[in-house]
Amino acid sequence: MRQESDALGAMPLPEGALYGIHTLRAADNFPVSGQHLFPEFIRAYAMVKAACALANADIGQLDAERADAVVAACREIADGAHADQFPVDPYQGGAGTSTNMNVNEVVANRALQLLGRQPGDHAFLSPLGHVNLHQSTNDTYPTALKVAALWLLKDLESAVSRLQEAFQDKEAAFAHVVKVGRTECMDAVPLTLGMEFGAFAEAISRDRWRIFKCRERLKQVNLGGTAIGTGLGAPRAFIFRAADHLRALTGLPVSRAENLVDATANADPFVEVSGILSAFAANLLKISSDLRLLASGPATGLGEIRLPARQAGSSIMPGKVNPVIPECVGQVALRVVANHQAVTLVAGLGQLQINQFLPLLTHSLLESLRLLVNATAIFADKCVRGITADEPRCRELVEKSHALATMLVPALGYEKVSHLLAEADARGVALADHLEATGVLSRQAAQALLAPKRMRKLGYEEGDYAELTRENRGSAPDPAGGEHPPRTPGKGEEQGGGDA
Fold first, then answer.
1. I want to staple 225 with a disulfide (CB 3.0 to 4.6 A). Which of 217, 260, 393, 429 is the partner?
2. What residues of the chain score a pLDDT lower than 70?
C-alpha cells in the first residue's frame, strides 16, 4: 500500500493503483449505480489532457520530458489501456470533478511509470500541477463529452446508412407485392409492400440527414475557458492553442467557441442533439412495431411478412419464434426517449455559470448514442435484410378485404359502392366476385385495378375505369372531374329513378 494525502486527510491506496486519493474518495462517496464511465468518454478525456499538455509545452509551461510522458500515457488510455483504473460512478456530485481528477491521477501515475518512477511521486509529476495545468473540470469535462459524442455520431451515421439501404433494398424487392393498407388497424386501401417499406426508408433517410447535421452543434468547445469561461488562470497563448491540438489529435472539426462563458454555462446544444436522437428513436419505435404487426401470427395474425428466426421464443410452447430483434430495438428507442427527457431537464436546471448535473447529461447522452449505434446495426443486419414477403397471404387478404371498394368510388360514387359491398357481405362473397356476378366489373378489370403498377401510379386517369358502363356509373362524378348527365329513364321507370 501507499499513502496519499489531500486537504481532507490521508488514505491508503494499493501500491500499483494508477488512480489516487481523489478517485478513492469519489468511489467511496458515490457507490450509486454500479456502472462505469463510457469508454468513449475516457478516451476523449485522455485526448483533451494530451492536447493541453502539448499546448503547455508549446508555451514553455511544461518541459518536454514531462509533456512527452503525459502525452504517451494519454495515448495508452485512449487506446483502451488501464480501463480498470476508472472506478468512479457516472452519477457523481461536483459537476464532473471526480471524473476529471480520476483522469488526472491515472495520467500522472502512468506518466511517472513511463519515466521510471513510482505512482504517487507527485513532487516530480503532479495530477493537478502538471496534468491539469491551466484547466478546470468546467472546460475539460464538457469538451470531452463533445469529443466522445462526435465520435459516436460518426458511428451512428454509418449504422443509419446501413439501415436506410436495407429498407431501400426491400422496397425494390417487394415492389410487385400488392397488399392491404390499414388505417387505425382496419382495412383501408391497397398499396404495395414495396411502398410500405419505401416509407420506412424515407423516414430513416431524414434521420440520417438530421444526425449528420448534429456535428455542427457540438464542434465548438469551451476548452481554455477554465472555471466559468473567462479563461482566468490560463495564459492567453494556451487558450488559443489547446483546441488546435485537440483537433489534430482527434481528427474532429473542433474549434474554440467564440463565447466561452456561454459555452460553459449553457447545455442547450446537447438538448438539440438529444432531440434529434429522440426523433430517430420515435421512427425506430414505430417501424419496429409495424414489422411486429405485419409478421404477427403467423397463422392467426397478419402474417404478410416473415422476420428472420433468431432464437426459440418460448420455454413451454414448441415452435414459437418471437420478433426479438424488433422488440430489442423498441426497448432501445424507449430508453433514448427517456434519456432525452433527462438531458432536457438537466440543461434547464443548470444554474448561473455551470451545470451541476452535467454528469447525468453525459451518461444519458452517451448511453443513447451507444444504444442507437448498436441497435441500428443489429436491426439492419439481423432483421431487415432477412425479411421475406408471404405473397400468397398478401394476395389472400387483398381479395378478402374491401380494399377494391375505395378504388371504385371515383367511378361509381360512395353510396353505390356501399350498396354493392352490403350485397356482397349479405351473400358471403368477396366484392370482386359480386361485381363480376352482377356484371358491374369483370374479374380481369378488377385485377387490373389492383395491379402493382396501378398502386404506384399517383392518382387515376379516366381510362382506368373504361370497363364500367354508364349505367353502372349512374350520376356519379366523372373521373375527369365533370358530372355525368342524368340518364334517360328506361321503359317503366319513373323520371329520376336511377341509382345515385
1. 260
2. 469-500
Spatial separation of the C-alpha atoms in residues 105 and 127, rounded to whole Å: 5
| Helix 137-173 × helix 97-114 angle, to 10° | 100
Residues 6+ apart with CB under 8 A from 411: 465, 468, 472, 473, 476, 479
Q: Alpha-carbon distance 68 to 57, whole Å?
A: 9
Concatenated DSSP letters of 323-383: -HHHHHHHHHHHHHHHHHHHHHHHHHH-BTTB-TTHHHHHHHHHHHHHHHHHHHHHHHHHT
Three-state SS at 81: coil
136 half-sphere exposure, CB direction, 13 A CA radius: 21
pTM of the full structure: 0.88
User: d(Cα 98, Cα 304) in Å, to the nearest integer?
Assistant: 54
Gyration radius from the chain CA atoms: 33
How far is 10 from 7, CA to CA, in rounded Å? 8
Look at residue 491 in the predicted model and tell me its pLDDT.
42
pLDDT at 461: 75
What single string gives the DSSP state of each residue in 459-494?
A: S--GGGGTTS-HHHHTTPBPTTSSBPPPPPPPTTPP
Dist CA 91 CA 26 (whole Å): 10
How would you classify the pairing of strands 178-183 and 186-192? antiparallel
Q: How far is CA 66 from the centre of its chain?
A: 42
Nine-digit cell at 127? 495530477
Look at residues 109, 107, 136, 80 and name the one whose alpha carbon lies nearest to residue 15: 109
State the cell numbers at 421.
359491398
Grid coordinates in use for 288? 419496429
Query: Does residue 389 contact residue 307 with C-beta atoms inside 8 Å?
Result: no
- Select from 51, 37, 133, 53 the least CA-distant residue to 89: 37
Half-sphere exposure of 241 toward its Cβ, with a 13 Å CA cutoff? 19
- Distance of CA 351 to CAs 347, 355, 496, Å? 9, 6, 78
Catalytically annotated residues: 314
Per-residue pLDDT tens over the stretch 194-221: 999 999 999 999 999 999 999 899 999 9
Which conformational region is residue 428 in: left (phi greater than 0), alpha (psi within -120 to 50 degrees), or beta? Answer: left
What would the grid cell of residue 237 be? 497563448
